[in-house]
Amino acid sequence: MALPFFWMPLSHAMQPPSPHSSSSPLSGFFSVFRYSQRALGLVWETSRWMMFGLALCTLVAGVLPAVAAWVGQLIVDGVVSAMAAHQAADDPDLRVSITPVLKLVGIEALIIGLIALAQRGLSAQQALLRALLGQKVNVMILEKAGTLSLGQFEDSELYDQLTRARREASTRPLALVNKTFGLMQNAISLGSFSVLLIQFSPWALLILAVGALPVFISEAKFSGDAFRLFRRRSPETRMQGYLETVLAREDSIKEVKLFGLEGLFLQRYRDIFTRLFAEDRRLTLHRESWGFVLGLLGTLTFYAAYAWVVIETIAGALTLGQMTMYLMVFKQGQSALSASLTAISGMYEDNLYLSNLYEYLEQPTKAEGGSLTQGTQPGDGLRFENVSFAYPGGRQVLQKISLHLAPGQSLALVGENGSGKTTLIKLLTRLYHPTHGRILLDGTDLRDWETGALRKRIGVIFQDFVRYQLQVGENLGVGDTHAFNDETRWQQAAHYGMADSFIKQMPKGYQTQLGRWFKDGQELSGGQWQKIALSRAYMREEADILVLDEPTAAMDAAAEADVFTRFRAHSRNKMTILISHRFSTVRSADMILVIDQGQVLERGTHEALLALDGRYAALFQLQAKGYQ
Ligand SMILES: Nc1ncnc2c1ncn2[C@@H]1O[C@H](COP(=O)(O)OP(=O)(O)OP(=O)(O)O)[C@@H](O)[C@H]1O
């Protein structure tokens, strides 16, 4: 038979399942505080004044309850002796007997008022800090995301970690700080209650502790379980999020409706929920039942102490005022102790979630590139030397590619789907590094180029360019952040990219909101979006390498012809790389590379490749026949 969980050693129940978990029982316990310091540091950086405010309110709210209990005792005893004096006096003057007691009542009212003020102060500062700290942590998460490589983004484990961090971690630091302060407040209260209680009996203190401990162990154990559950099922939670997106976003809803996918996807969504909910229910029921049973122990100890105090009072060992005070102190002490223990187990849970945040934030990011802003052989252009590449954990996608492209030359890449054309561009733009061989720009390995200087030289549009839900002008401006708001530059780029004519007809011209997500947004056609993306590439004024990955697939024939006429005119002194499945658009390139399964199958000009009568010639004739 399995032992109930509370038979487990505390150190085991407290062991966080993070990679940093320690094996020693003591450090297992102290791991509860591992991230408290960092969370406090975050609050300190966010607002020092509020940190001081929190500390002050915590102190006031911690000490004053015991003072109130003590004043309570003085009141009851004052009332008892005033009653006796009043009855014994020959000429009783009520004012004389009640004045001292009323003064005490006034002091007690003042203390209660101060406690209320401190508590309001705490909750006001916590609410403000929640907003500030949430924003700070979210910014940290997003800043870190900006430093991750494309490869890291495509790693599903890291993506899970990022999702978990975003989902929970922005609220956890404050929760941890609140609990740390709550713990301090309760510890101060407990200390001051203990001073009063120990005068009754040291055993009373022991009873207090024994009553609260089991609930704490149970809470710690279930917090760990909850976190492990949260962590294990983040791929499923992410799938749920994904299904929500597919079912509720305008860019997918068209296909969902036409294929009648609502029912299918919704069922999958429900199935995931049902599976997750079954686990949640099991955990919640266990947690609450054990909490109830063990909580009863606390209630029992309270009533045992109650009976003890009553007996002592009847026996005359305690005054009525002392009885009232001890009962109050015992009751409040018990709730302060169980609140402290619950705070510790809550801190344990927050620590686990924060460990996830810091695991993500501490992901190693390789320093991108070197420091050179110029090549060793300016004007040499672009060279691929024996470049091979495999995606992480995947097969070889490019094999031994060598090529040279001088300034002013144009290169076209053709090949079947999946042959590796886009991958070659990803290497050229240093989104990935070659696994073998090297790529040189002006005689210098891309790895040694300073990132900004390298990216400035390249203007690129990918097939899956982004359709920003921003204004038209901003959709162009993203192509060059220095000219993000420069309308003259937008107009120039839109002219080259052939987007100017339809932009002028839009209700607010360059200020028109694009997409359907925000008010008055205008949706564009596929070809119009492509013209926006093309114009975006033209925003890179300083770029002398222009890469167009299927830039005209959605355009009509006239627009396509126009795009290439302008492209050639605009890029006379630049290096251009064009990927296209339309042979009519690649024929004028200085060099055409036919890629097949990651290898160069044929290379040469259009005429040379036709004369070769190989794959290119066959495909060209096939397409030409289609137009006859
Ligand atoms: N991020 C990635 N991770 C792993 N494999 C990838 C990734 N992107 C592409 N691949 C694989 O690399 C190969 C080459 O893909 P690539 O996108 O370069 O082909 P392409 O020639 O541009 O195709 P298309 O003409 O369809 O655009 C394919 O087999 C693809 O499955």
UniProtKB/TrEMBL annotation:
Topology versus the membrane, per the UniProt entry? Multi-pass membrane protein
Q: Which residues form the ABC transmembrane type-1 domain?
A: 52-349
Q: Record keywords: Membrane included? A: yes
Return the InterPro entries for the record: AAA+_ATPase, ABC1_TM_dom, ABC1_TM_sf, ABC_transporter-like_ATP-bd, ABC_transporter-like_CS, P-loop_NTPase, Type_1_exporter
Gene3D superfamilies reported for this sequence: ABC transporter type 1, transmembrane domain, P-loop containing nucleotide triphosphate hydrolases
Q: Where does the record place the ABC transporter domain?
A: 382-622
PROSITE patterns, per the entry? ABC_TM1F, ABC_TRANSPORTER_1, ABC_TRANSPORTER_2
Q: A cellular component term (GO) from this record?
A: plasma membrane
Query: What is this protein's record name?
Result: ATP-binding cassette subfamily B protein/ATP-binding cassette subfamily C protein
Q: Which organism is it from?
A: Vreelandella songnenensis
